[in-house]
Specification:
Length: 184
């Protein structure tokens, strides 16, 4: 099963985009951003039982400048929203966001003035993870799906175009005050 058996001639033809995609998806470093109860499940994903280290992701970074994945674990208050955006802005490109749990994805059961009705009002989200709270296995599944997305991310000018289009879409979302939920 060694790479020598797969490549007996010792030659591999590929594209830069494929190699970069493989390298990036194998070295994602999450930023520590636990906000509420979902963060406990995120922390347990780092334990030996769930073993996030198998993806090279065990290093949760305390500095946004050394992180490229923001896992928003928990509800985001209106007061926290600008802080979250600032941390996102300090992360280098390319970067990705997982909205972990219904609160981060849509406000969940907190349909009130204090809670952001979805973190995609302030940052572009790559993966929405349902559940209250989602189990570590669900977070790992979201990470595997994100890996697939990272592997197929375009490079250079095409990538920039894609990021700004996604961000424009998020910013064009209706304001919280205009949204109708189950209680309105
Ligand atoms: S989704 Fe559930 S577990 Fe997660 S922050 Fe909201 S209330 Fe807590």
């Amino acid at each position: 099963m060694g790479i020598e058996e797969k490549l007996p001639a010792g030659i591999l033809l590929s594209t830069v985009e494929t190699i970069v995609g493989l390298s990036r998806k194998s070295s994602v470093w999450p930023a520590t951003f636990g906000l509420a109860c979902c963060a406990i499940e995120m922390m347990s994903t780092g334990t030996p039982r769930h073993d996030i280290a198998r993806f090279g992701m065990e290093r949760f970074s305390a500095s946004p400048r050394q992180a490229d994945l923001m896992i928003v674990a928990g509800r985001v208050s209106q007061k926290m929203a600008p802080v979250l955006r600032q941390i996102y802005d300090q992360m280098p490109e390319p970067k990705w966001v997982i909205a972990m749990g219904v609160c981060a994805s849509s406000g969940g059961m907190f349909n009130n003035y204090a809670i952001l009705q979805g973190v995609d009002h302030v940052v572009p989200v790559d993966i929405y993870l349902p559940g209250c709270p989602p189990r570590p296995e669900m977070l790992l599944d979201a990470i595997i799906k994100l890996h697939d997305k990272i592997r197929h991310t375009p490079l250079g000018a095409n990538a920039k175009r894609q990021y700004s289009a996604e961000e424009d879409l998020a910013l064009a979302a209706p304001a919280t005050i205009e949204m109708t939920g189950l209680l309105r």
